[in-house]
Amino acid sequence: MDRTGTYTVVKPCNDHGTTTLREHPRNGTVHVVEYDDPAVEDALSNLDIGSVVRVELRRTGRRGNAWRAESAQPVDPI
Q: Looking at residues 27-50, what average pLDDT do you find?
């Protein structure tokens, strides 16, 4: 299962490399635990709580709410 959309950072990247995001407009929460490459990890790791980012995700494993970020592009505030 893949998802692409706009998300808000709820919990910034922690020491274990996990970032928690809230999806718009459904308010679903996803936990990014893997990254496609170091550039994607850097893009998400440098965001603060409340930052908005456009992310392409792919589910990792068959259960749970763990995702792999395949791309990440911060959205400029208006």
A: 93
Residue carrying the six token digits 């459904």: 26
75 contact partners, CB below 8 Å, separation of at least 6: 6, 52, 53, 54
pLDDT confidence bin for 10, thresholds 50/70/90: very high
Paired tokens of 30: 């996803």
CATH code of the domain covering residue 30: 2.40.50.140
- Distance of alpha carbon 51 from alpha carbon 37, whole angstroms: 21
Q: pTM above the 0.85 mark?
A: yes
- Per the structure, the count of domains in the chain is 1
Half-sphere exposure of 4 (CA within 13 A, CB side): 5
By DSSP bridging, strand 29-35 and strand 52-59 are unpaired
